[in-house]
Amino acid sequence: MFDRTTPHNALPPLPPATVVETPAVLKKAIAASRALAELKGMAERMPNQAMLIDSLVLQEARASSEIENVLTTNDELYIAASDEAQPASAEAKEVLRYRQALNHGFRQIRSRPLATGLFVEIVQLLKQASFDIRRTPGTRIGNTRGEIIYTPPEGEQVIRDKLRELENFMHAEDELDVLVKMALVHYQFETIHPFPDGNGRAGRIVNILFLVDRGLLNLPVLYLSRYIIEHKNAYYDGLRRVTEDGAWEDWLLYMLDAVEQTSIRTQRQITDILALMEEVRERVQREAPSIYSKDLIELVFRQPYSKIPFLERAGMGTRQTCAKYLRELERLGVLAGQKMGREVYFINQRLFQLLTR
To answer: pTM higher than 0.85 for the full model?
Structure first.
């Protein structure tokens, strides 16, 4: 019998000692793979891929942090992202660290394996502390009623051994569908619970990096946290039922549906953003040809909040020239100027609405 109060040092390595690719799982994996492939292709066609990484990842960062009860508003987050040197709330800074950790991981897997050393770096960036593998005993996971629902493995060497087994599984050449494998990896990472804090966010970053590492994505644009928020009880119940009952099929179907639905939602979002960019490009070219440039349009779509120094750093001219560009876009209704303290931000409100809907 599984004991929720005893460290789960008997957590078996992957793959599970049962058939996980059931007919229902394989059928769902095909649908999820198709949706993800379409998202990959659409992301690659974006004229400004930095916008996807800079703006869309902030929504993932916000949602992933919300799962851990780190709450911030979209306005606060985008203002903080527009100038990280400006004062910001502790919550906004913590959300921005998620983007930093994801971008670090994305850069690193181009030249090194997705493994324990990188996991540690990711959680250190998330927490801005010298975190390492858990050494102190006594970690317990409880519910809102204060009941212990799970006790993860205990002992630094035990945890490192289980992470090494996970690495071996991640990089093994086998016949498992990659999305099925991602779902197995996510369960195992969260169940090992290797760090004192930040495991949920680190695990969701590992999901994205694993898909990039295996070639299913070229850019880190699959963000599952919103789906998890919308189906939060099923997420935690699914993890628990695998551990206690071996209910792999339900867990895999949940994660595959998350991939499929998130891919479809993100495709629609990108389609709408591209349509808006084209509409704005045509309008500016027609009504303000003296300031029109492709680079200017792409810059004000990189994130919703712009200000004069953004354009200066992008080499678009002197401060006076850059101010003229932004004021002209404001006159056209493309941007809305708003003074906040000493700063004047020019907000792409329609982009903001598309990103946050």
So the answer is: yes
